[in-house]
Amino acid sequence: MRRPHWPRRVFAQLLLSQTVVTVGVTAVTAGLFLAPVSRELDRDAMQRALSIAQATATDEVLARAAAAHDSVSVQHNAEQIRLATGASFVVVTDLDGIRLSHTDPAKIGFRVSTDPEPALRGESVTAIQEGTLGRTARGKVPLRLADGRIVGEVSVGISDDSIRRRLLSMVAGILLCAGAGLAAGTVATLVLARRLKRRTHNIAIADISALLVEREAMLHGIREGMVALDRRGRIRLANDEAVRLLALPEDCAGRAIDEVLPPGRLAEVLTGRIEGTDLPAVRDDRVLVVNRMATADDGAVVTLRDRTELESLVRELDTTRSLTEALRAQDHEHANRMHTLLGLLELGRHEQAAEFISEQSGSHAAVAAGIAEQVQDPHVAALLAGKAAVAAERGVRLAIDPGSHLPDAAVDPRALVTVLGNLVDNALDALTGGTVEVTLRASGATLLIEVSDSGPGIPPELRERIFEEGWTSKDAPSHRPRGLGLAMVRRLVERAGGRITVEDGPLGGARFSVELPEALHPAALVEAS
Known about the structure:
This protein is of the alpha+beta class and 529 residues long.
């Protein structure tokens, strides 16, 4: 014989289990209610029997008849009381416990079946006892004359059948109430089960377990960050990549975004206060692309893509493209110069040709030599040399302040190149011609950087907004968003414990000033000096 299978569907298991629980609870509740009711009915019957016995014992005529052993008179009075009160029996005995009355006259003259001694000693007794008339609730009291002398016992009994009839009359109502409760519980369970069926798409318990395992594997295995938020903006779930990209604490679950992230664009995007798709944001030195999608329960799912390396590659590509364009222009310029040189030689002006060659070959070498003399760090020197060539192609003069000096002692050359490169790029983008001046000075282990331009400058009301992620006054190219360079510069500077300011510069445009403490190795500075 095959054993019945437990239902696999969630709603079926809930319906079956809740129905079993409801039936069990209803049955236990009914039983627990009936037990004290039965005891209370027994106590009520014993108290009623005792009251009848006490009332009977006050009958002076009955007491004198019992004292005279007049069983006929006692039997007559006792039966009248029994019929009037509805008791099962009213038994009167003498001092020896011999019956003087009974519902069965044949038993008169015999000793009672239960102990009469407590009542004959003057005590009132109530009990459930088994006698010749079966199980009854009994009340026993002493029978006294007017002078108080005990002459016998009065025992009154109420049949157990009458008690049970009263209990059965109450059971119907109790069971009716229990049935109503059971029906209400079953209906509520059915409604809940149907709702759960819709919410769980009628899947099985084993499928839920498999889905949870697969979800955990996917969430923590993908290389994109994902953060799930509830309707109050609190983090419900964050996968490993999101924790890494956002530098979230381990106990981030259940906490609001504003509690685990500093104020700024990233927190604004994650909470939905800034809307859009593929929104750029910066976290420390990382460039992130953020997308936020609302869910049916008024929560949201946020995905994060790390564009730091891609952004770096794009910047390198921009620099390479600029250098390529500069080389292409220089190729045309070189051809023009060769034609000029050829003309001078054909005209026989050899001295002018020699001077022309010396002049042209020395100009570029002089720029590179001047940069290398003032800037000894190879990374920064190479950056400035490349930017000088790009600036020359754009018709902009990139100059190094004569008082500038940077020893080869940078603690983090990559961060320094990022800061200086973004500031120079920002200055070049603001010009169609003119001058960009760079100043580099070491003050102990602190590095001071200034980048000035002769452009239109930055209005005072915009000098804070330019450092916000995603904000720009320029048209963004198709291959990457703008508004990240200055934001990244500020993050890098502040993370190093420095500061960056912008003000009107000496060239008529803007001047960016950066102070980077502990940016230079003290030991290398001593060797350089």
